[in-house]
Every structure is written in C-alpha cells, then in structure tokens.
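User: Structure tokens for this complex, please. No commentary.
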Amino acid sequence: MSKFHLVRRADARIWRTLLFCFIGIVISLTIGAVILWVLGIKPWEYYGKMFTIGLIGNKYGYKSIEGLLKIFVPLLITSLALSLSFKMRFWNIGGEGEFLIGAIAASIIAFHSTGTPNFVTVLLMCLAAMISSGIIGVAVAALKVKFNTNETLMTLMINYIMLYVIRYIGETKADWNFFLREDSKRAKFGTFPDSAVMGGIHFGKFNLLWSVIIAIALTVIIYIYLKYTKHGYEISVVGDSSATAKYAGMSVGKIVLRTMFISSALIGLAAALTVSAAGTISDTITNGVGWTGIIVAWLGKLNVPAVFVISILISILQYGCQAAATQYPAIDINFADLLQGIILFSVLVADFAANFKIARKEEAKNA
Amino acid sequence: MEYAIELKGITKSFGPVAANKNINLSLAKGEILALLGENGSGKTTLMNMLSGIYMPDSGSIFINGEKARINSPEDSGRLGIGMVHQHFKLVERFTALENIRIGMRGNGRFIHGKDVRKKIEDTAAKFGFEIDLDKVVANMAVSEKQTLEILKVLCYGAKIIILDEPTAVLTVQEIDKLFAVLRAMKAEGHSIIIITHKLNEVMAISDRVAVLRHGEYIDTVVTAETDEKALTELMVGRKITLNIDRPVIEKTHPLLEIRDLTVKNDEGATAIDHINFYIRGGEILGVAGIAGSGQKELCEAIAGLRKIEEGKMIHEGESIVGMSPKKILEHGISMSFIPEDRLGMGLAPSLSITDNMILKNYNEAKGPFVDRKSAREEAQKVIERLEVVTPSTETPVRRLSGGNVQKVLLGREIKSGPNVLITAYPVRGLDINSSYTIYNILNDEKKKGTGILFVGEDLDVMLALCDKIMVICHGKLQGVVNSEHTTKEEIGLMMTGTLNIVNKEGKTDGIAKDSAFTSDEEDKSV
Amino acid sequence: MLDVFTLFLFNIIVYNIPLLYGTTGEIMIEKSGSLNLGVEGTMAIGAVVGYLAGAKTNSLFVACIVSFIAAGLVGLLFSFLTVTLQANQNVTGLTITTFGVAFYYFIGNALSNSKGGWPMFSGAEESATKAFYEQSQALHIPVLSDIPFFGKALFSHGILVYVAILIAILMSVYFKKTVPGLKLRAIGENPAAADSLGVNVTLYKYLHIIIGSGIMGIGGLYMGLNMGGTFEGSNCWINGYGWISIALVIFANWSPAKAILGTFIFGFFNTLRVQNAALAYAFPNALGWLTKIPSHFFSALPFIITLIVLIASSLSKKKKSGEPQAIGRNYYREDR
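Assistant:
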C-alpha cells in the first residue's frame, strides 16, 4: 500500500482550474507542434495559418467568416443542448441521431414549400425538426425513467439507425423519394426551393445568417433558463442528488422527460437551421456535431458561457484546419480531430490536478 | 487466561472528536464477549481498528499474545480476524459458493478447484450451518445472507470473529439458530466478539460483557455475575445534568396523530410496527431507540417519502396518508433528517446556501423564475441567526463544515414556519457549542407553538430537552414517558426491549385523550 | 449452386470475425465495470500501427504483437483517465474514438503523401511484404479443409480467424471457471464487496482494460488485412465495426461464447447485404425478393435488433441480464 494518497482540495479556485487547463492546452498544442515538425512542417507557420483561419492577406476573407459560422452554429446549439441533459446526469449521446431526425423532418417541409413565404417555411422547418427530435428524446427518457433502460446505449443505437435511414433516402431512386434531384441519373440529394433557404443580413458582401443570431439568442436564453428559472433550478438539484430532489417533493421523472424533450428538440432546431443554411441535406450534414458536442460540453464543464467560448475555439480549430489544408496538403481536417482529442485528454488531467492534491496517508486519515 | 486479543490504551480521534479514549479490552480464547454501548459510544470505530479499516492514534494491539500492526483488511485476515459487517458485502448475482470463493486463498486457480466445495461444506457442517451453496444471493432471505457472511470468514480461517449487530435483522427463531452456531464456533475454539444492544441476547449468549460509554472503556463483567439492570446502568451511566432549557408552554390540541402505523424498510422487512403517538403544539416529543429501530422509516413515512402499509396519520383533522411529499409540506409538516454521511438527504451539496434555502418552496415564487433575491435574504438571516460560518451565501454547501451544514438544513426547515417539525439527529457530529445553538433554535420554535418530534441519540440531552419521550425498539412502541418523571435506566431498559409500559396501569400510551379521531371515523376506516 | 452457399458461409466468417475481436475485447472491459465507447478508435489505432509494423518487419506475428501493444496503450490511457483520475467513462471513450479514427487518417495521409508512400500489401514475388501477406492467407488444414462444402466454408481461413474463436472460448472459460475471472466479475458487479475481500480493484481494472483493448487492436489489424492493406483517404478500415461490436456485447448478453454466435448472426445480415444479388440470381424464385430489400436495412439491422434487445431486457421482470451491475460508474474507495 502506498504511503501517499490523493485528497480533494478543500477550496476550489477558479483561477487554479483555468491555469491548469491553460497549461493543458499549451501542452496539447506542443504535442501537435511536434507532430507537425516530424512531418517537416514549421509548426508556427501552420498554427499561424490555422488560427487566423486563412483571413490574413485574403480578399475573400468574409467567406472564411461565413464558413466558420456555418460550423459554429450547429456545434454551439448541440453542445448547449447536450449540456442540459448532462447536467441532469442523463447520458444523451444520441446527438447525431437526433440531429439527423431533425434534418430529415425539416427537409420534408423544405421540399414541399414552394410558394410559401421564406419566413413561414423556415419557421415550420424548425418546428417540425424540434417536435420530431424531441419525441425521440422523450421516448428514450421515458424508457429510462420507467424501466431504467440504459440511455447511453439506447441513444448510441439511434445514432446508427438514423445514419442508415438518411443513407437509404440519399441512395434510393424512387418515385416517392422527393429528397432527390429529378434531373440526375445518379441518386443525389436535391436542393431546397428558395423559400426554404435561410436569408441573412448583408454587411457589404458579408452575409450574416439569421441562424447565427438565433444561436446567440439561444445561448442567452439557455443561460437564463438554467440559471434563473425554476426549471433550471430543478435540473441542477436532480443532477446533484436525485434523492434530495425527491425529498423536496420534485417529480424527478417529469423533470427528466421535460429536459430531454428540450435537449433533443434543441438539437433538432440546430439541424433545421443547418439544412436551411446549407439549402440541402446530406448524410454528412451533422459534421459530427453529435460527437464533438459531447467533447465541447465536457470541456466547458456544462457551463453555458464556457461552452460558448469553447464552441468558438473548436470551430476555429476545425475550420482553420480546412483552411490551412489548401497550403498543406499533407495535413487535413483529421489533424483538428486529433488535436481535439489530445486537448480533452490533457484537460481531464489538468482538471484533476486542479481539484486534487497528494497528501501523506496518515494526515489523510485523521482529517 | 490466554488472550486472543488484548487492546491496550487504544485512542483514536477524528479531527477534534475523540471516538475512542484509552481503551483496554481483552478477549479470551474460546469465549464470547459481548460489546455493549449506546450509539456513538465508539464500538464500531474500535472494531474497525481490528479489521484494518482504521489505525489507532496510540496504544497497542496484541493478537494471541504477540504485538500486531494491522494496516489493512488483508493484515487483519492474515492474523485470523474475520469481521461480519452489519451491511453485507455480497455480490448479489453470485451463488453462495462464488461469493466465498472470491476471497479464498489457495485451492488452485479454478472456481471449482480441488476440494473447494468440500472444504466449504465441511466448514458448514462443522458449525451446523444449513446453506445451499448454489443458491444465488439475490434469492436469499436476510438470515441466509448473514449465514453466508459468517461462513465466509470461517472458510478464510478466521479464529477471531467479530459480529457487528448480527441480530438486528433477524427474527427470534433465526436468532436462536445464530446463537446455536455461535456456540458451536465457541466449542471449536473460536473467539467471538458480538456487538449488540439487546440485553436479553447479551445475557443469553455471552461469557463476559465489555461496556463502552462515550468513547471510554467502562468495565468488563462476567455475564453470570450480573443482570440486565446492572448492565443498563453501566451502559447509560449516571444521569448527567445538562444545562439545556426546557421552557414550559401551554400545549395545544394534538397537531399530528399517528395510529397503527406500519411501514416496511428497503429490504421489505417491517420497520415500524403498529405505532401510536401524537404531538401537541408547544411540546418536544423525543424519540429514543437503538440505531436502526425504525427511526428513519418513521420520519420518511410522515413526510410522505415512504409507502405506508397500514395505519392512519391525521394532521390538524385531515388525513395525510397518500399525500405527496409536497402536499404534506404545504400542510405544515417539515422534516429534516441528518443521515450518517450528513449530506445525502435534504441538501444538494454542490449548490449554494441560497439555492438550498429554497429547495422546498422555490415553486411559490410567481412566474417562471426562481426568486433568488429573497432566498439570499433568507440565507443571510439563517446565517446570522444560526451563526453559520461561511464566506458568503453563495458558497456551495459541500464546502461547509459539518455543523454549519446542519444549521443550514435546520434553518431552512424552520423558516417556512411549519407547525410540526420533525428533526432527526440534528446535532449528529456537532461540537458542544453548535449543539447548544441547535437546542436553542428548537426551543424557540417550541415557544412559537410548534410541535416538534426530536429523534435523538443522547439520552441525557433528550431528558433535558424533551417534554416527553417515546421509546421504540424494533419498530414497536415500548411506551411514552414524561421526562420529569423518568430515569435513564428506565429508558435504557425500554430501548433494549426489556421493559414495555404501553399498557401499564390501565392507560394506553400514544393515544390522546382529546383525540381528533372520532369513533365513527375509526369505524369508517377499519 | 452449392457454391453460393459455401461462399455465403465463408464470407460470414471472413468478413465478420473482427466483430468477434471487438466484442470479446469490450466484454472483458465491461465485465470489469467500465463502459468503453472507444472501440472504434482503439481498433483503428491497433490496425494502422500493427499493419505498418507488419509491413516493415514482413511478419504477421510482429504485426499482431504491435497492434496488441498499441491498442493496449490506448487502454492504458482509458484506465488512467477513468480509474485513477475518475474521469467520465462516456466522454473518455468517445474521445478515444474521435482521436483514434483521426490518428488513422492522419498517419495514412501523411504516409501516402510521403516519399516512400503507403506500404503495399502483396504476395507478389518481388514484394517486400510477401511473408506478411502469405502468413495472413488461408491455412490449409489437412483433412478438414478438404471436406466438401464445410471444408471451404469453415476450415479454409487465415490464422487470425481461429485465434479470434480461441480467444472467445478461452475468455468464456476464464470468466466461468477461474478465480481471477470470478474476481473480475465481482468487481463489475459490486466493487466494494470485491475490495473488502482483498481483491485489488485498481490492478484488475487496469489489466483487463488493457488486455481487452489489445484484443480489439488485433481485430482492427485483421480488418486492415482484409481490405488488402490499402489505405483509402475516404473510408476507415474499421468502418463502424467498433460500434457494431458494442451493440453485439449487449446482444450476446456479455457472454464471450454467445458472442461467437452473435457474430455469425450479425454477420449473416451483413453478408446478406453484400450478397443478396448473388443469392437472388442463383435462386430467382425462392430468393428473388431479396433484391427488393434495401441494403441499408441490413446495415441498420444490428443496431435495430440491439435496441429491441436492450429495451426488452429492461422490461422483463427476470433479471437474467448479464449486464454488470456497476457498469459505467467509477469506483472510489473512501479514505482508509
């Protein structure tokens, strides 16, 4: 038996956590730099390109910002939605599946929208997506509450079932399949009529999509929801101790169902905004946000402002990799995923180091 | 005499609280020693030092005459000490044999290795156990599980066996069986320490009795030379006069009346068995009993957190049976229970004091938002009034020290102005000063006309603080006594099940003369 | 006509054995009470590192050892984060998958774009990987391989097919019959009870997570070899088999022996997807309808079946499920 022993620090200092996490990120980037260097690429030049997402010396810079925001919006909303359920210790890892359900529902509206006004169409798309994704979330939550079915594994299965559903739609030529282009011999997803494509506010050439504004507004709303409303209060009590919640007279099952509906519906909303902004649907429309969102939510410790900031950083990482790939063909988008993984691992270690200290065993015993 | 265990000058403190003070204890080879003491007298701490869970701060342990250092459960096992915990440590889905095999050394690498079954069966036969080795633990009755636990330590070759309250979960017949096994073990030369509160059992099974009180070793007596009364006196000690106020208030009609209440515990055994009692406004009714006599289940039943098997509960003329916890709370009954870990129930440890203040009434605020402004004011008030030591109202409860956590909990319970306050172990783990603060708070509530049910551990405190004390043993009411006219010994005898005065002298304890139960109401619900 | 069936059976085994590696590896980990969602990533890392080592040394044996070690190191990372640092298992596992798959593509792209290029896997005379290639090809087992129909279908496989089945059988014996296996299961069921009986919970968890991950790694290597060892920028060798393995663990009710059966059942649907046309062509009347079923349905079937099994088993009153009771929760012993 070892003489030393880990003890939770009595005082949690925010600066200490931040400092340790910062060190963790620096170490991760250093590991990334070593990898680049081994491949014969000058790390600082690459990082320079990556973090400026190809803005510098680029007269089409506004395109870069638009591209970045297209990655950012779904990631942000999904991460926030997942944080809601994680805060309740409900392991909804079905972000991918819920996103796809929402995307399909929104597309059904979109493909039938010729003639309806743009605003109405997009609103209907959002509603359809939110309801259909929300229903799946509630179904999973109900099984969990009623029969204690493992929600992690259930949502995982849904992800893959939905993946094959969308592939089926995208690869099957048939009369009923309005998702596909009619003029193409090969099975190919069609583009939405103009009525279903999201507009935005133009600043010169730069087009600020409505979805960006919606996402930022949502962040504020979710922040307020979690922090100041009764619902948010209930979520934090259930997540902290469901025994206490029951003792206080809360109906835990109802709270779980409600929160899972909101969580999944928000992911559906993210999907609707994404397909509307893209003007089409595809089997890669999720861009992995269901997975990345989990990492973001965790890195942000389920705290809304932190999740917001980390969503920006991860988007920059991902978009920056894409942008830099034009000049460094040896490095592609996978470098971003690689780096993302290393960052999460080091932040997990850093977080632990910030909260625990090593103490002599005898001392610990008497404490 | 040859000793299996000798403890010399054992002292163990947890922070400022001394759990064991200079304890000397000896266990002779081949004897059954009963270890007697009230809750919190340090029995379990002492035994945990023998089983390697804690290490003593000072003092020495001799096993079979040799000085020993017990650093871990493995060391303890190697020295031939086996402990049967009160809470079984069994893998529910394994068979009896598999459970035993996990910790068995030798006999090859296979579960059904050479002689494994034979060895276990032989051990079982030697001590007269009846056990189906292929039965899955999940399908076993409590007594079977306990048999398995004892068989387990015997199979590991333990010569010294410690049983922590083994009879607490057993029926009378099962206890007889257990005692037969213990005697068989003794005949085989095993030395046994049995922790129990029940004096009749002590008299029946033990050779000698060692008594602890408030962490101190009092005496060891030979069972044959003593009786239950003498033992009770040793256990509870002389009455200590405490300087706790007991203001006399004019009592109101019964606020809460309980009739024939029967409740089961988590394992499905009867925890509360047809209990009657009532609380008037302006009085503190103490609940005395050995730990695990059904106190927790009683509190939970009243608060609506546990299903009631049978019986009636009337609060201000209205039945609260079947009401949701929320409804009962709105009705004016507030319950706070300090569990052993002090945090599990009633508080959300990661949330701030402010947020914990509104746990039960956050829903009263109008609109969708939580009213943190008044919550913060309330938190501030509680902090000031109860002298909670905290950096701010926004500090998570987890970071407060034990006493302050309890003040927060109690502060919240009284701030809603309940007319019945149920509080279980409110001073658990607190130092003297904090305890007095809590007693004052309770007395203030009493002066306001609140009826208080005080579930406590320390008899001296209860005698000083409570107006009346109801004593329960094994979920059964043993009687209700007036604190002015009773003695510690009397309560001690009732707690241990030796004395029952419910139907003494033509009266029936626990039923109010001016009961709100009318006779036709009783007929209706029968 | 018989050929179609022979080939069908043969393909079930050849293309789905990686599921058995992934599943047995994951069962070993889950039996210790840990849920590792990083199967896909662990397999990917084992595959790419093992393959490169094999190509370099021209030896299948080295390839297997290296992929076992590489994947085992991933297991070590998972154990360190979740057992020692008490990090969340879901998040750690998913990140391992993201990381592992990215690692696979990253190494693959980097090598493909380098001077030497991606090492080819070929049995041609002048090939540098001739021995490696040949060692991984089907073995000819005297007598057995020559049995009509079954000889080709069951006994004409590469060594790694038999190793997988052997691992599953050994693991089944390990869990059912041996004391360390018993202790491991006790940890997965009730770590506190195991701890109180002197079982070193931390050591057992580390060891079994590492070995389980290593087994997955060999499964990844097998997949790579099955794909002819060619790196494609668009499709990962593992191709979702890690996720199917997680599903299969549930389907097999956490039993390595049932995992063999489960592999063949999932494999059956998988092969039906690939060979539905061939079957329909061979038996236009009896099996012609097969072409009408979209291949996606067969792909999704393992997940659909597992979802149903998952829900059904939680609905049933009988708690016969093999799911370890302490799964997904980290064990933290109070101060001692």
